[in-house]
Structures are given as C-alpha cells and as structure tokens.
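Dear colleague,

Thank you for sharing your sequence with our group. We've completed the structure prediction you requested, and as agreed, I am returning the results in plain text so they can be pasted directly into your records. Please verify that the sequence below matches your submission; if there's any discrepancy, let me know and we will rerun it promptly.
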Amino acid sequence: MNKQIFFTLLVFYLIGCTEVMKDQQKPDNYNWSSYLGGDDRNHFAPLDQINVDNVDQLELAWHYQSENGDSARMGQIQCNSLIIDGILYGTSPTLKIFALDATNGKKIWEFDHQSAGINYGMNVNRGITFHHQKQRIFFSAGPYLYALNAADGSLVTSFGNEGKVNMREGLTSGNHDDLYVVATSPGAIFNNKLIMGFRTLEGMGAAPGHIRAYNVDSGEIEWTFYTVPQPGQFGYHTWPEDAYTYSGGANSWAGVSLDSERGIVYVPTGSAVYDFYGANRKGANLFANSLLALNAETGQREWHYQLVHHDIWDRDAPAPPNLITVMHNGKPTPAVAQITKHAYVFLFNRITGEPLFPINEVPVPTETDLAGEEPWPTQPIPSKPPPFAPQVFKRDMISTIDSSSYPKLLKKWEETNSFAQFTPPSLEGTMIFPGFDGGGEWGGAAVDENGIMYVNGSVMPWILTMVETGAAFLKDEQPKTIHELGQQVYDLQCAVCHGDDMKGDGGGSYPSLVGVDQKFDKDSMMTLLNQGKGMMPAFNHIDQKQKLAVIDFLLKEEVEVEIDNVHELGMDKNVLAYRSTGYNKFVDQNGYPAVKPPWGTLNAIDLNEGKILWQVPLGEFSELSAKGIPKTGTENYGGPTVTTGDIIFIAASKDEHIRAFDRKNGRELWKYKLPAGGYATPSTYMVNGVQYIVIASGGDKMGTAKGDSYLAFKLKN
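Please find the predicted structure tokens below.
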C-alpha cells in the first residue's frame, strides 16, 4: 500500500476514534448547579445537543404555573432556576420555593413562608443558593434568610431562629427593626460560609450595605466587611468624618462571584444614599460603586477598584462579575470582568486587581446648580473594550420614527443638559444615557470558553430632574393638618419613584397612584406600607403618624391635627435640600424611546483583544416592522446563556419572546412567544441524555402583563 494512502487512512481512523471517545465522554446528565451556571457567573454550559443546525426544532417540553394562574398573586419572577440531579428548584412571584421534576415540570414539594406565618414583606428574587455537601437551600424573603432541606423543603431548624436569620441584625448599633433589608440575589458558599449582600432603601434612612458571611450551620455572622468604612479602616478618609454613623447604601444587591480555588469572593457595590445628591457625603465614597476582591475566609480586602467616584447618577454595579481566563500579552491570564450600567466592561487581573487594558481618569463636568454638591472632577473610563451602548445623546440621534413627535422631542432635548458623560443632576433636567437601568443590567453577561462575552443592553434615555425639598421645609410654616403633613411625607419618601404627579414610570416598576383611593382603604394601605410589595419596600423607617399622614393624603381625606414640630418628618442633619422628581423615561407620544434605534441590543465582545465582534437588535415591535421599519430592538431585562452548541439563549425583550442566536455572528435562529415577558436568565441542563432550556416567565416590567410560569424546551423527538 502506498505510504501516503496508509498515513491518510490512519489519520482518518484516529480522528474517528477521537470523535467516538468524545461521544462516550459526553455526560447523559448536566447540572445547572449554581446561580447563573456556576460560581464564576458565566452563564455557560458545555452542551451541544441543541445547536445551530437543529435549534429551530425546539418544542415546549413542559409548562409550570407557580401560582396556579392566580393573577392576584402574579408579579415579577426574575429567578435563574437551579437544576441538580434531575430536579429543578425555583421561586414564585410570592417567593414560594419549589422543586420540580426537571423532565416534566411536575411538583415534588413547595415551601410557602407566608403560610408558615413567618413572612415579613416581599421582594423580587433572582435565585437561590444550594449547599451541595449539606443538601441545603438558602433563600431570602423580606429581611429573613432561610435554610431549607433540599429533599423535602422543610426548614433546617438548627439554622438561626428555627430556620431563619434576621438580616437586619448587626447592621447598626440602634434599633434595627426599622431597617429595610432584602436580598434580591443569592450568595456564594465558601467552606462553611454563605457570603452575600442585600438591597437597601434608595433614600435617606437606608441601612448601611455591609457584606456579611453567615455560618451555614448556625446562621451566625462569621465576618463583616464595612462598605462605609469606620474610623481607622481603609477608605475612611473618602467620606466626612462621621459618615459611618448615618450613611447608607454602598450595598451589593447584584450578587457575588467566587474563585473557590484562590479563596477570593468578588463583590460589586452600588451607590451611597442619597443616589442623586451627595452634599452630606462629600468625597469619593469608597467602597460605593466598586468592585471588591475579598478574602472569602476572613473578609479582608485583597484589592478594590472604584468604578464611579462620588456617584450622583445611580450608577450601581448591576450584575455579578464574570470570572474568566483570557489571553493577555500572549499568556493565559485569570481575569474578572465587570459590566456597568453605563455600558462599559472593566477587565482586571483576578489576582492582583491590575487593569488588563488601561483605564483613564477623564475630566468630567462639575458645574452644578445644586447648592452644597461637590461632583468628583474625573471618572474612570476603560480604553478597551469600547462601550456597548452610546454615551451621549446628541441632537442627530433624536428619533424620527414618528415625525409628529419630533418637534416636541427636540424642544425637550434642547431644554435638558445632555452635552457630556457624567453631567451632574440639575434643577432643569439632566440626560441619563444610557438610562438608569442600563446599558448593562442585573441579568448580567455570559462568557464562553473562548473569552467572548455576550451581553444585552438597553438604549433608553431618561431625564433626571431635581427639586428643592427636605431642608427647605425647615424654613416654612409647620404643617397644620395630617393631609398637609402627608403631602410632605409623600414628597420626601414616595415621589422619587411615583413622581410628583403620582403617575409612576409608565412601565410597571413604579405604578401610578392616580385613583389609588378607589383600590385601597386605610387598612390595606397601612399593610402595604408595613410590608411592602414587589419592588416597593416596607416603610418601617417612618413612624405611625407619618404613615397615617401619607395615607390620608393619598386617599384624599383630611383630618385636622396639630403637629408639634417639624422633626416629626424625621428631619435631622441628613435631610437633604434636593430630591429627584422620579424615574422619567424620555419617550415620544407613542411611548417609543426618544432616541433613534436600536433600543435594545445583543453584543459579542472579545475580552482577549478588547473589541466588539458584533452587535444586533434584541427584540421587535411588530407594529413598526409591519410598516417596513427595520427591527428596532426593545428595552430588555434578564441575561443570556451560551453553550458549546454555538447558541445564545435569551428572553429579556419587551415583546415577550425567548430567542436563540448564533454566537458566531448574532444571527437569530429561533424564537417562541412566552405567556409573559421572560425577564430572567435562562438555565440549560441535561437529564437522561436530553438537553433542556428553561426560562421564568413573570412579566410585569415595561408595562407588560404579569405571569407566574416556567417553560422548558427540548428538541422534537
């Protein structure tokens, strides 16, 4: 036999053997065992049964309704479900925890903290933490952290107080019962510690956002990292001397990532309170708006990087960072990548904290009409990768989708400060672009085995307008009636979300209060203020008279009563002179964003080279497509998942579809209309040789309908 032919046949034989061995090594079962796919938070699975060649053959495998279709109990499900050994664990809109057979969606068990009589309030939940060695589930509802047995959903009574820990305890030296504390994202487990942050109020009276590690057996606090430094601690000099006694926020609501091999937990933090006016917190404000690398065993700081100095734009770090390996200067380098609301990706050496691409301190505007404010003169801007959303809303970007809206949009644009990044808040209005919700948001980014990041972004302008309040009341005649007092309490506590006109944001997150007197009576509204609901916190930081006052104001009743002194409003030295009028999107008369499309995108970013590979619209308005307008994309909430089948799965869009894209070029390959918006991150798993994709379909954002469903898909038989 000719030697060339022999060696050719030998090569083909060896290739065939290799492929057979690969097939034999492929698991029949694959777990999505941790939030966002793993402690690295990379939303990645090495599964390729579903791939670019067959993804259009997906069909519905099962559909589970977590509230039995009860519309009164529906709301936002943002849960990235876990699938472990053929069992799916998820949460309902009312924060029931359940276990399902992951092959057919049939319920195995359910734990309802409300029926157990141990609930305090509600909050949005994005996932749970599973302790694999102990077969234990940790989740939060209201201010409580619970521990359940994974086998049957029963409380682990040895944990804390009969199965729960009050997360408000240990945050302040005073009365902690009045603090608003909930955990919207799950923590990470290192050895015997559950490490996590939490959400606080956005206004004055907020709890400090310390990071804590809880003992997984007892529930006791093992260590605390003070995000508002105390005397003698690093960063203390970046605040006023006594700020640690009253400042709140600087919390980690987005979740954490863990390098268990090195024993480092990576913690992104949000802004200090108050979000839009910092006269009482002059300075850079470490460790707000930072990426922290902490020793997971002790809580000691390994390194940090502040992403926004003295934040007055609510530029929280919105998602847990991705722990990855990239090729840098020709060498594999352990890295950590943090996305931001302003659509940048900050990339660091995971061990040393050194930026892998230069980050420049860029001068930004500091002129402000808000007395007492001292904006920071520079902000950090990465040289690479470029931002995945535009940074300045220029005149030629004003939407022309509706020609009749254009003159009004132009006039509003001309009246609003929109000339540069990081323009300070103002009385006349400042453009926040990309908007308060990003850019990047809590859905986070996926990163594949090649160091390519896939991240969705919204391109929605918002307008931040400030008004005098708070300290201005000290100059005025004291309120004489409960109704008048209620107006002032509303201005201080409620208007930031529901607006001065009480019309909310028009998108479902902050509903209109117009006509609320037709929906609530005094008792039901008091319950709402005491317990909170959905995105609304409990208002236990204000006293009973203030609650009654705002109830009377909203229900249009008036009771004459003498108010002893203005400090019944809770006014002390921390009452600020200015507040925001609310979260106001800049839209045309039809509700479309005032900027030219795309309004939502899916992006592929090469983190090895620091460049954007492709960008495509995410989502569609069918009525605009019918007019021949190219696909615009929509605002979006929830993240992508990527697989070695070259598929990116993502829902997130306002049009309530889940989609599959080719990860190589962003080509849309498949979509399915969900019963409600899928504002969560999909999970993918394999049971008995069958790969599934599952998404929580809860809706209730951007004005879309509510839902309570989980839907799983697999290939047709």
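Summary note from our side: The two ends are 45 Å apart (CA to CA).

Kind regards,
the structure core
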